[in-house]
Amino acid sequence: MHSGCIFRSDGRISIKRLSHNGVLSAERDMSEKYIMALDQGTTSSRCILFDKTGSICSQAQQEFPQIFPHPGWVEHNPWDIWETQLQVAKEAMHALHADPSQIAAIGITNQRETTVVWDAETGEPVYNAIVWQCRRTAEAIDSMKNEGWSARVQDKTGLIPDAYFSASKVAWILEHVPGAKEKAEQGELRFGTIDSWLIWNLTDRTVHVTDYTNASRTMLYDIKRLCWDQELLAYFGIPESMLPQVLPSSGILGYTESLGGRIPIAGVAGDQQAALFGQCGFQKGDVKSTYGTGGFMLLNTGSEAVHADNGLLTTIAAFAPAKKDMDETGDEASWSDALPVQYALEGSVFVAGAAVQWLRDELKILRTAAESERYCREAPDTDGVYVVPAFTGMGAPYWNPYARGCIFGLTRGAERAHLIRATVESLAYQTEDLLQAMRDASGLDIRELLVDGGASANDFLMQFQADISASEIIRPKCIETTALGAAYLAGLAVGYWDGTEEILKNRGVDKVFILAGDKEKRERRLSGWKRAVKAALSWANG
Ligand code: ADP
Fold first, then answer.
1. What are the boundaries of each domain within the chain?
2. What integer pLDDT is reported at residue 323 of this predicted model?
3. Nearest to 425 by CA among 392, 391, 455
4. What residues does ligand 1 touch, defined as CB less than 6 Å away?
5. Which of 91, 150, 367, 510 is the most buried (most CB within 10 A)?
């Protein structure tokens, strides 16, 4: 994927200019239109221009500083976010000599939950952005739980109370920034997740909106009644005047002149929801699994907001309203009140690819993550070795923050290849645990998994996943599913693509992995994994 990068002398920006077949292209047709995806992530801002086939035509990326004022605290400077995002958008256009009239629409996808509060008059943030990872409000959330709010919060927002979500971060800013509370009460402050902050600036401070997917990660939004929840706003002391208007993920939310001409902003979704959409997970029962540093799984549950008791979250999925729900102009004024919202179940694995990094960086038994595949194939099996990479506790469906990594089943004959294979296999076992939790909560017998993320490049892992989950594993050609999802949402809203059927026709599949192992082997392996997890939890509980 990364061939064709151009690095500037300052080393900060990479640009790709690719044709359909992945070769650095000559000049493109000046009448060609593109969709611009702004992908605002936790460590970098990226911009990708896609064409009608969903191929990447150019790409630019810029990192920005992470700010750690205290242990466990994480902040970003909102101006760094805005400036890097604008810069990469210009760079990506420049790489194709594209002018604004060639950008049919902009789609935005973003790190979720990260919170910005700014002055409505001056547009100046009153504090740095508090990043989703920041734990400064963990105690406040503990108090909330102790006061018995958990069930009510989950019922309204689909979320299990946590410092990750925006609500307690906004409350912290209002309490700790001198004068902020008074200004907020007088209607002088605005709150937004990163999508809102970008749109506010892209529209020259005229539009204050977000989309359903981002709103559903604030822990302030009632995902069934589709409104900000008055009781939670009161609990956190957040005036409603601070909040953005919530709109569907696909539709014109505003226009920008920031790139030298008028371009509609027509798609917005949080990163995980955008990835499900980019994987063409449009239908109930579609599920995507991302194998990155951590793992993220999202299951489209259609019009039903499925309640889960096993540590999964309920959230709003990105969806494109059917044409009948929009008027002919596709204008923002046209949203029907009765949009059929789509929901998703979400679960995460704290340590996925990070376990392979551990083999490489701490144990030093791998030179590269990709090399793990060769070792996995060298050993016919793990010879009874199981690795439970619970370095930071265990997520759904186990939920134990005190769990730690364990290795079981070592014999005198255990070799490097066994340990590497057992670690790679643990990614598949954890994914199967999430999948089973989703099957249990939704009642859907899911047998197809759409995969992406760095470790999905490992063919051994994907085949093992197919065998362990007795499912078909589908890996797309374009693994930039997050940006692609934002592009699809925007392109559908302006008629660049006719409908999801057209996009599905475009969908490029790189490889499908189908069940090859037998049932007895699968059950034996899974029962070994369950024993290993049980032992790890028993160790944690002392
Ligand atoms: P993120 O977006 O979370 O930074 P990526 O999607 O880029 O992560 O994936 C990087 C992760 O995938 C790393 O943790 C790395 O160890 C793992 N990884 C990359 N390639 C492979 C591979 N071929 N086999 C196993 N793990 C891999």
1. 6-278
2. 58
3. 455
4. 292-293, 353-354, 356-357, 369-370, 372-373, 453-455, 457-458
5. 91
